[in-house]
Amino acid sequence: MNAPETLPRSRRGERIAMLAILAAILLLFAFFWRDILLPLLRLQLRHDLSGAQRLLREKGLQGAVSVVLVEALQMVVVFIPAEFIQISSGLSYPLYAAVPLCDLGVCLGASAIFALVRFLRFSSFAYEKRRGRIERLSAGLHDRSTILLMYLLFLMPIVPFGAICYYGSSTKLPYPKYILTVAVGVLPSILVSNLMGAAGSAFLLRGLPLWQLILVILALAAVLFALILLFIRHVFFREAAGTPDSLMYAFIFFLVRLWLGKRQRVEIEDAALRELDAPYILLSNHESFEDFYYLSQLAHPRNPSYLVNEYYCTRPLLKPMAKKGGILSKKLFTRDMSTGVGILRMVRRGYPIVIFPEGRLSPDGRSNPIVESGAALYRRLRTALVLVRIDGAYFAHPKWRKRTYRSTIRVSVRRVLRPEELAELTEAELDELIRAELYNDASAGGQTVWPQKDKAVGLDTLLYRCADCGALYRTLGVGSELRCLCCGRVHRLDERYRFTDAPYTIPGWYDAIRRMEAEELDALSLRAAVKTKIFGADGGPVRWETGECSLDTEAFRYVSETHSFEIPAEKLPALAFSCGEEFELYHENELHYFYPLEEPKQVARWALAVDLLAERRRNGTNGKGEPTDEKG
Hints:
This protein is an alpha/beta fold. It has 4 domains: 10-231, no CATH class; 247-443, Glycerol-3-phosphate (1)-acyltransferase; 459-516, no CATH class; 521-619, PH-domain like. The protein is 48% helix and 16% strand. It is built from 25 helices and 17 strands. The chain has a 7-stranded mixed β-sheet with strand order 1-7-6-2-5-3-4. A 7-stranded antiparallel β-sheet has the order 14-13-12-11-17-16-15, with helices on one face. A 3-stranded antiparallel β-sheet has the order 8-9-10, with no helix packed on it. A hairpin with a 3-residue loop joins strand 15 and strand 16. The N and C termini lie far apart (82 Å).
């Protein structure tokens, strides 16, 4: 029979010491509970700061000890806010006494949490509710990064002190490092709360004018915010900078989850991905702006890098975040050698890459054509290719509507192609396979019910032409109805986002417009006076000007007082646009946003015209599906 396992002598001593501290805390609470702690908690529930101030002063030394104990209690229980006792302390004692008392209370509570978690395997329900937030930030961190993360969380009013200590206790961080991190990390917040209490005392007892009190509070908030920014910039984001393992990457997705995390229910089917090692290339259809977040929910073996529009990687504030977070950039519909180099480097470092090969959001819920083949690059990288389809995101937040609807988003790994499988496919076969696996039609499923009463609001900026009479720019989305102000026809969207009569679906209406425009394509001649926003190359300065755009079957042209240029139609594979606002393209590495001065709905027409010209070149058709003699 094996001998029973015994703890090493050093571990037994550590456990005994921690349990002794825990017992001493319990005895202190028992002694002070009835006369001081319970009345203080009652005052806190009533938010009675002046009552707390009187109680603490009347109790003298016992009041000071009570500050320590209440601060410790809120750490262990988590959901009791610490600000009340900290402000009360600032009201009752000089700053040189209030700050150490609160800090001592935090350390006492943190020690109790350490003993409960590390030795008694205790778990707080209030902490468990917040565990996900912290664990998403802390995945894969070492001791030093854990300490930095705890410092950042203490500075930011996102997670209670107690929850941070429960997290720190659950790691392998030694107690001396842990308690030192807690003692130092909470000081800025304690100091601000105590100073607010001191300012409140001056306001109540010494006649401090109200405007000066407000000024003091704003100044203290600004100081705390400045400390957070300094810490983030100079300390927190140095480690693993420039990769998806960086804390900047973790911070970006932490903010994204705070913003998007509870809006949608995301259903994941990724069994095939769970068997795969990094690196790999992941391709997905593109239905909404939030797609990158939905893909982050997959079981990636390592954090993936995302290939995004260069605009989001060159603007002030966004540029350093993207660079330090390992985000890759691409100029839309422009040949860019640096993009391929960046992908190759990231793959060689072992990171997955997420790419949306359509390069733009779906206008009508059907996947866009993939106008830039990446088959040669995917084969050359000699990594696995993961094909993913997103469904449900289009109607939750289509590009023509600003409002987001709550929905169920389904993300499914459709196929995983190993390097040896890629080698057996021709580039044409691979392109066709990617297109087929990624293709989705949001109107085809009809599983989701949409009870909202304003489903058609903004739809007229996409369906800019009446499907019945063909009138331009006379459609109007009102509630769940799309009306034509010319012929008077009204089409209503039901709860499954289908029209109650022909053309029945949004893609059906869009196809009706497509046929009308294709019939007029040979005589294409669009012209618009525009206000132009020009983003300088590589994050250069932004400038505004007015000019005129024109488009025919031969070329796109732009003329202003300062410069002009022409892009042949065959070099314009697609035109990105924002419904009812602008269309955009690159010229000489500068991004141009064109805002029509009249009838902003026309931007959807310009984009469709470019699509029809590109379709004619690719398929040798006239845009209506009919063959022509022209081959492209």
